[in-house]
């Protein structure tokens, strides 16, 4: 082997190592962020059935109003948030900054004295969390394509369900061990614990989150590393971000992609929405507070398995086939919820089968990233309504 051949081989091995390093680093960072996002998003349901309802004399409608406040802000602020995420200079700093803000709001929920304050804080949490989910998919689609994108999206999405699971276990532990400590009920301690998780992840994000390949270079990556990332994106035909003009909006609205993907997303969300209310059913059935917080976590355990398995299979078989199978499981569960007068055992099966939806979101977003990879602006706009 000549000296030049050895050098090329060495560069190739080093390049492969750096690809793995960058990819692993990006996934771990975003897994941490989505974990605390869902921890802070779903904690209201756990708090509600762990004393919040009684302390503020609430009923089932108030839990729905909390969710309406959150999702109203979430939908409205996705548009500016994700458009900002597509700007290279801002992409690296936006998510950690928003994470700090919603972490502060999470802490503040432990000090509320009336339900109006809680409505306002849920709105703010939804506003600050708005670009995280679609924004991370946009980030992943800026670094990867094809089968590797499906697998990384599925691996990252696992922490969605994990955050929701941990919220249930934390609330159960807080209710059992912290009720009355410091003169506060256990449900307030849940918000404090969640805030303690959130703020450090945000601070670390300022140091290590790389943004997109065209963002300002983080300290741990060299110029050659960024060049390598841009070369990979170019080989995969992932176009670099351009200007966001009125023509981009017109072009996007004239193509079929945005309409089909929005329809798929809406159906996916509607079919799995009942999952959030399993704890209310358990409470009505007379289960204890720890059981009400723990039993729904089985759904999210299934969600984790479905996310990993579904995206793995989607890299081998047609992605639409895997998506359809998972959606059919959710359809069955939804029909059981509509009929309702069924055996209790079948209700548990229906609640838990909603976990099959774990693979639908990463498959759908990865499909968007793959099909529209040659137009970064259209890709960002398609993800906004989702």
Automatic annotation (TrEMBL):
InterPro entries associated with the record: MFS, MFS_trans_sf
Bilayer topology: Multi-pass membrane protein
Subcellular location: Membrane
Transmembrane spans: 118-141, 153-170, 190-209, 258-277, 321-342, 348-372
UniProt keyword annotations, A-Z: Membrane, Transmembrane, Transmembrane helix, Transport
Gene Ontology terms: cellular component: membrane
Molecular function terms, GO-annotated: transmembrane transporter activity
Pfam families linked: MFS_1
Record-stated family: Belongs to the major facilitator superfamily. Allantoate permease family.
Protein name: Major facilitator superfamily (MFS) profile domain-containing protein
């Amino acid at each position: 082997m000549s000296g030049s051949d050895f050098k090329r081989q060495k560069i190739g091995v080093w390049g492969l190592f750096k690809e793995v390093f960058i990819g692993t680093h990006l996934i771990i960072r975003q897994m941490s962020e989505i974990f605390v996002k869902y921890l802070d998003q779903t904690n209201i349901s756990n708090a509600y059935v762990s004393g919040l309802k009684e302390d503020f004399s609430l009923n089932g409608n108030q839990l729905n109003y909390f969710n309406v406040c959150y999702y109203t802000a979430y939908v409205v602020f996705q548009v500016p948030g994700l458009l900002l995420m597509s700007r290279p200079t801002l992409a690296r700093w936006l998510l950690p900054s928003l994470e700090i803000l919603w972490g502060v709001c999470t802490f503040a929920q432990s000090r509320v004295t009336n339900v109006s304050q809680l409505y306002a804080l849920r709105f703010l949490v939804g506003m600050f969390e708005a670009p995280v989910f679609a924004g991370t998919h946009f980030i992943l689609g800026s670094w990867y394509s094809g089968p590797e994108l499906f697998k990384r999206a599925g691996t990252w999405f696992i922490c969605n369900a994990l955050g929701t699971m941990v919220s249930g276990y934390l609330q159960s532990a807080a209710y059992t061990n912290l009720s009355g400590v410091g003169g506060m009920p256990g449900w307030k301690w849940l918000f404090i614990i969640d805030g303690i998780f959130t703020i450090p992840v945000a601070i670390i994000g300022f140091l290590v989150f790389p943004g997109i390949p065209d963002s300002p270079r983080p300290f741990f990556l060299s110029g050659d590393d960024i060049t390598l990332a841009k070369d990979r994106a170019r080989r995969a035909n992932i176009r670099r971000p351009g200007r966001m003009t009125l023509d981009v909006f017109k072009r996007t609205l004239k193509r079929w992609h945005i309409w089909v993907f929005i329809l798929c997303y809406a159906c996916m969300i509607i079919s799995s929405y009942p999952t959030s209310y399993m704890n209310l059913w358990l409470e009505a059935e007379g289960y204890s507070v720890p059981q009400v917080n723990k039993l729904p976590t089985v759904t999210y355990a299934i969600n984790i398995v479905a996310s990993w398995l579904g995206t793995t299979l989607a890299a081998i078989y047609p992605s639409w086939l895997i998506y359809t199978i998972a959606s059919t499981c959710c359809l069955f569960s939804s029909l059981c919820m509509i009929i309702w007068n069924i055996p209790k055992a079948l209700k548990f099966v229906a609640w838990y089968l909603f976990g099959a939806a774990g693979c639908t979101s990463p498959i759908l977003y990865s499909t968007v990233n793959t099909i529209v990879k040659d137009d970064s602006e259209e890709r960002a706009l398609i993800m906004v309504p989702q």
